[in-house]
Amino acid sequence: MKQILSILFALGFVAVAVAAPPNFIVILGEGSGWTSSSVQMDDRNPASKGTGVRTPNLERLAAAGMRFSDGYAASPRCTPSRAALFTGKSPAQLHMTFVNEGRRDSAGEVSGRVLTLNASTELPAAEITTAEFLKRAGYATAHFGKWHVGRVSPSQHGFDESDGATGNGGPDNVAAPNPKQALAMTAKGIDFLERQVKVSKPFYLQLSYYPNQAERGKPQRRPEPTDDETLIVDQTLGQLLDAVGRLGLKGNTYVLYTTDHGTPGRNPPLTGGKGMVWEGGLRVPFIIAGPGVKAGACSHVRVSATDLFPTFAELAGAREPLPDGIEGGSFADVLKNGGGGAVKRPREEFVVHFPHYDKDAIGPASAIYLGDWKLIRPHETGAVKLFDVAKDPGERRDLARELPDKAKELDARLTAYLTAMNAQLPKPNLNYDPIKPTEVKRGGGKRKETP
N or C: which end of the chain has fewer CB within 10 A? Predict the structure, then answer.
């Protein structure tokens, strides 16, 4: 038998070694928009990068890999976006469409600019996460930083290592966890990489950054929208990229950077921001480098956080079928084809469902994307808005009256999707005033927050 195997090896009929499965590192920024860095996210649009901030390490990652001009968060708020990233399912399907903020009135409703229906803020135990899926395929898994999808430990959702079920305040539950926690979580991540290299084990590492809640101004008030979060992420990203190089991981490791939603306030040249289904709340940086990814490429294929689960599963060569209900699709072929191609999802459209009174004067709203088209449905009035986001990413020209048939088609698709997902719909709040300050709880204390 040994002689036969020797002959087959010599003739090349038996592979000498099997390629090791790739590693994955996901860096999730907090509340940083499409133009919150010095990376030009769209090679056709000079306005798609920030002018008042320099992020050399994000530039370094982009130069080594691929930018997606049309990268999207699954929600304009952090908890639903994170839940979608972990599961490959939309917040609408998960019934996780908001965050654990707000106060209830005497009737039990959450008042002001916040929750008005019984949406969950705890990631269901029955949901299979990317970490659980890859762990079953032999991966070591770790999550360091902001968790914010409930009080259950990440260890119950497939992560071998973590620093707990943290929220905005980090492990110390303070108003301004950075830069301490940004540096600490990066150090933990690098230590995790070093240990996996020693035992030759593939890994999935996620680093989720905390917001800078009191970097300027009065300590009880969140500062005006700044790029501070992006700057601290860029600094620690440099440390991480250096470690990847030092440990000899470049040739077999995918490193991805994206964010959970746009910045609060303005996100020029886009309209809107955090808490809104306009482009400023949803279109975010999306950069990935790794084996087979063309350096310096810019793809115009629409991708979202829900696509990460199936993409990593395909790149890992996982044999187990994807869990039922996955809405994302793999963009592995797009990575391998220099940015061209398409993402094959179970449904052709991409929907963001945000049925809450938050930071937008139009109130609860949903958005549907199909090709170059985007339709926004404000649930209070039903007066839809239609945009060609390829030509008009700033959503300046509403085409709903000019193209009523297209608006009707997308509106019907949106209804069909929400029905299929059994999506929760908003309850009218006749006292809603998006300008009026609202008392909210965050980091263990109360404070006034304005849009």
Answer: N
